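DATA SHEET
Item: assembly model
Revision: 1
Owner: S.N.
Input lines:
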Amino acid sequence: MPKKKSSGQTVSAEFPKAPTGIQGLDDITAGGLPKGRTTLVCGGPGCGKTLFGMEFLVRGALHMGEPGVMLAFEETAEELTQNVRSLGFDLNQLIKDNKLILDTIPIEATEFEESGEYDLEGLFVRLGDSIDSIGAKRIVLDTIEVLFGGLSNQGIIRSELRRLFHWLKNRNMTSIVTGERGEGSLTRQGLEEYVSDCVILLDHRVNEQMSTRRLRVIKYRGSLHGTNEFPFLIGQQGLSVLPITSLKIEHNISEEKVSTGVPQLDEMFGGKGVYRGSTVLVTGGVGTGKTSLVSHFAEAACRGEHVLYFAFEESSPQIIRNMKSIGLNLGKWVNKGLLHIESSRPSLFGLESHLVNFYNAVNTHHPKLVIMDPINDFLSIGSTREIKALFLRMVDFLKSRQITLICTGLISHVDSAQETEVGVSSLADTWIHLSNLEFDGEHRRQLYILKSRGMAHSHQVRQYTMSHQGIHLDEISGRHASNHLHGL
Amino acid sequence: MSHVSQAPSTSKRDSAKNSPYHLTLYVAGHSPKSRLAMSNLHQLCETRLSSKYTVEIVDLLREPKRARLDQIVAIPTLVKKLPPPLKKIIGDLSNTEKVLVGLDLYDESGEVILSSAMEPPP
């Protein structure tokens, strides 16, 4: 969200922060992790702790000019490198560029004989050397608790860990310590006693066979932070935390309008179409031409802007073929790279995955217009509240970027709309309804504008036809039709 | 780094383990623990290592890179590279029994190989 930067700056005087670069996390922590201090990241096995740490280091090294050190007790350098390769992180290159050091300590594999007093100065020396050799500003210790299993003198480990955290602070290192979640405590060895600045809990659960990952900032000394559980995903571009949208509604509002692609429909909105950055809902029964209408929107926008089309029922070639029959050559825009059609079935993913895919696609293609056709299948994959929240996030995300959103929904009669559908429709700024009408032994199509916030619009019900020249709204002529339609 | 090499000793016990010992002691500066480990090791080598041996002392404060290269975490650490297998003993080596176990200084009967003249350290 755009407020990220400003809020990060306003608090930076008091609480310097180190941006993680992890999508969404810097939003809920108002700028990142406490700079020069230690953050505890805890959670059960497989919750993404190591990846969290790796991404913090990689993004720091790549984008914030802060080299980093990874001290891994459980994985080998090869495993670590392999695990993040799929996310596009090339650790070997970073190591070559002196931006990253991977140091692995296979504690459990090593048998120590203990004879007399010792300390962990060796660990300090190697960390100090690694930090100095690349000028590291960030460090991840993953998972230092393993020391408790490898060494028998718990008292020494505890006092040395305390010394280590002081030492890291004195060296002004922004650090992450990971810890395995324990029974009745955040970590098995009570690491939270040593780390008092920031604690983040990761969680991985399975609900109705759908796995969800959640993140919660339990504690952040001296800083505001979101206290909710935020869903997060491990996607193709790393971790993504999905903040529930900004509580405030403060989008920039555009006076500019974008064409619907149907000149007569533009006229119904006062001549030029709908507001840029608004949310348009197109509903209608089976075969009323919802996809055709949104394809007009797409076609009009493609004359100069990028369009992202999420197709949830049809494949890209199918849409292109079908739209050819009404004279819309979408294939041309696909070839020109202006129209991106993403086809997938909503039920294949959880709601959160959808949101992340959605964010990633928008961030990749930078569209000015986004189409979701249709949204009905979404309504089946979560509770009303969840779906409304999902749409709220999508709508806010797009509005904050002045991207126009067009959704289609299969609703035969506006009055019969389900609770969820009503919930979603309340987010729409403009609602166009299409319907079929059997009349005088003929099958006719008609549309009208249910609402359009902030603009005068026609209240007429207009008949329209679909031909090889696209959608065409009939002129309002003939008392018969007009009277009848007004009577609806 | 300093090397302390000993000539082959003529102990009557050298038949049990007569391959040469290669030991490395990692310390950090002249801390009390480090000094104690050095003196304990010296005494142990003198009195109980019947075959020839080499001791290398590595001061990590002077050679910090070796901490990572040689996988050192705790200080002091004694590493037996030869004869195989590689063994690590951490601590100031004040518990001689443990050191001997760590160095595989047991003979076939399970007895610790001791020079007859040895008294356990105080």
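QC remark: The first strand of chain A starts at residue 17 and ends at 18.
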